[in-house]
Design brief:
Helix content: 40-55%
Largest sheet: 11 strands, mixed
CATH class of the largest domain: Alpha Beta
Structural class: alpha/beta
Distance between the termini: 17 Å
Number of helices: 19
CATH architecture of the largest domain: 3-Layer(aba) Sandwich
Number of strands: 18
Bound molecules: ligand NPW, adenosine-5'-diphosphate, potassium ion
Length: 500
Amino acid sequence: MLKILTAEQIRALDAHTIMNEPITSVDLMERAGQAFVSWFCRHVDVVQTVGIICGTGNNGGDGLVIARLLLTYNYKVKVWIVRGESKESTDFTANLNRIATKHLVNEISNEQELSSSDFTDCHVLIDALFGTGLSRKVVGLQEAVIKKMNDTTAYKIAVDVPSGLQIDKPSIGTIFKADFTLTFQLPKLAFLLPENFQYVGNWQVVRIGLDKKFIETSDTKHFLLEKKDVKAILKPRNKFDHKGNNGKALLIAGSYGKMGAAILAARAAMRTGLGLLTTHVPSACLTIIQNSAPESMASVDGHEHYFTTTPSCEDIDAVGVGPGIGLHNETKRAFEKLLQQSKKPLVVDADAITLLANHPSLLLLLPPQSILTPHPGEFRRLVGDWANDFDRLEKQKNFSKQIGGIVVLKGAHTSITSPNGKVYFNSSGNPGMATAGSGDVLTGMIMSLLAQGYKPLDAAIVGVFLHGWAGDLAVRKMGEISLIASDIIDFIPPAYHDLR
Ligand SMILES: NC(=O)C1=CN([C@@H]2O[C@H](COP(=O)(O)OP(=O)(O)OC[C@H]3O[C@@H](n4cnc5c(N)ncnc54)[C@H](OP(=O)(O)O)[C@@H]3O)[C@@H](O)[C@H]2O)[C@@H](O)CC1
Ligand SMILES: Nc1ncnc2c1ncn2[C@@H]1O[C@H](COP(=O)(O)OP(=O)(O)O)[C@@H](O)[C@H]1O
Ligand SMILES: [K+]
């Protein structure tokens, strides 16, 4: 699990590393520059002309290290130093002195110098204006520089952070629009929020050897999941296991015309390792579930077309409810009865979430530690609108606390919140999964894990990561455009294999 720290904590981490490791700040900067260049040389052809725009702080210092190193690798490099009111950092000055080819370094200290600076013949622009030290809204000359960079057609790469972006709070003003951001040591909270994709682009973390112990002891509520975290939670099968002790689940899903949701969830639940599944369906839909998910038993509703009669949950380890059930009044009543009789945590998705939003008194009936899996539209119905994605995250944390349960807010970097305020962001998954039914697959998977005895938070973490990992394997074969929800189910077995 990678910790996500605030800008202030990162400054303290840098300072602590310099104080306590046998490394000087200028050598740490060299290491950061080397890490950047090592990535860069593997991804950018040497025939490209590279423009590097530097501020006069340590982010600009990184830019100067990068310039010097890229020259040694025979890239054609141009450097612009943007000078404002702030004075040079010591390590910036040291690195400016280390550049032998001074004629490649241009200065921009006023509008006139800016207008005579031509970025257009650069194939790649590297932004080293501001990093984590950004302390205020960018205005004046610096803002004009960022706008000019954004206006070019060059491939744009940000060093550590796109200039102008606050890493731990909402940003205002002009921000560099990177195609790619290579960030040092730790992921940054802002990178995980959809509203910042336009600035951050795709991103990757490179390690620069900041102090491990300091990171371990730093206090944070935000984490990025890694494969090894999930691997550590996975339960092995035992020789004498039988279907009865690999979990019994009840899935209440589907309605006339929306049986796909039930089939996808049921099939995903079985592939995720469930021992026994009962799928509760409207009477007219019995044949279809029996034909399409033969591993599942069926429980038949009193109504032909939708969910109206609550099945017994006795002897059931976990219930998943919601995909495709519709919003009829009788369905609401049956759902209410289900909540009243449930003592164990439930997995609540899709229409069942909308029923909760439409009838907030039902929220009081949710068993503690239940798992809700809204997409942003469903989440908005539950909590109302948000001012920005940081606000959305706060609302998610508060809602988890309010219901005493786990909220899985789906999307790229799905966020999982628990009542104690911790947030786990997913690192698997891809845009190919933005297709009908992929959420139903997730519901089946999380229900399956919950029934198999995973703690609710673990079921959510493993389910979300495994779902994304299966999607990542599927996309290699199927491609982003053609991938469909059933493909995710087909790739659960190799995804498990990889994790083990
Ligand atoms: N320290 C380390 O060990 C390592 C650090 N590393 C690198 O250092 C980066 C952090 O460096 P940093 O702290 O120097 O801050 P940075 O992002 O360059 O900006 C600060 C400068 O900008 C100015 N300024 C701020 N906001 C402004 C605004 N809106 N408009 C105008 N000016 C503004 C501010 O001026 P001041 O506020 O003091 O007036 C100051 O001059 C980090 O992202 C990483 O790249 C790596 O080398 C690894 C080792
Ligand atoms: N761009 C994306 N990157 C990664 N995962 C995605 C992306 N878009 C969607 N997903 C995943 O696909 C699923 C979509 O769920 P949902 O919106 O409920 O779909 P449906 O209602 O059609 O089943 C979620 O698990 C989500 O995290
Ligand atoms: K930058």
